[in-house]
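Consider this today:
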Amino acid sequence: MSRILGGIGIAHTPSMGYQYDKGVREGFDPKWQPWYDGTRPVKQWLREKRPSHMVVIYNDHMNYFDLKAYPTFAIGVAAHFPQADEGYGLRPFPGVDGDPDFAWPIARSLVRDGFDLTFCQELELDHGVYSWLPYLFDAPWPLKVLPIAVNMLMHPVPTPQRLHALGASLRRALLNDGANRDVVVLATGGMSHQIHGTKFGLTNEKWDRYFLDAIEQRQDELVATPVEEIMQVAGTEAAELAMWYTMRAALAVSARTHYSFYTLPAVTGCGVIALDEPEPRG
């Protein structure tokens, strides 16, 4: 069985990546310095955990999939995942390595549990992964990644209950894969924000902080909240937070917060939480 070391929930936003690249060259903008500083403890936590593999639950922003065919759940089973060009050239980072021998047993297990996956022998990763990745790891990336892309763009999107069930199924798959790998499960989705319409620029720091606090032990409370309600109080794109339920359900109920941080630099709430999986008995 693979060992689940813990989980991470983290926001993503294109500006997060832009500000990282600018910050390492010229120094961080005062609005973004707290985010960089606030992610240092998570980077150190990962160094101490030393995972060999990371499952990443994220959403593509029409940089690989498009509205002609947008899968509900897509899993990357390739040996390598290039960075997607989002229209302004590639950032100075390498692609991410996958591990087909790790991915395929997980995929088969999820299908047996009733999740109809789209299998991707090729997959490019956009800012849903690359905006936060260099905050947490130094390139070349020190672990293998299994990406699971979720439709959070074309309605109807998966329900919170379905995303929570995906996490429970992922946990079963990891603990019964017959492998010997050290795994961190990460989910990423923008916190409060809206980037279109009459509510453009909407953020809700109170909601974001409530969410970070509740995800540890009150996830049932969150899962019972319809995505449409989240969209109303925290902005349309805050629906992406429902992907964090997959990460949380992949951990033990007794998992506890190691570290949590939140800031609101501009347009999008930026939060991160790292949860420790309890040591297995015996």
User: Anything to note?
Assistant: Residues 3-13+44-84+91-195+210-257 form a domain with the Protocatechuate 4,5-dioxygenase; Chain B fold (CATH 3.40.830.10). The chain has one domain: 3-13+44-84+91-195+210-257.
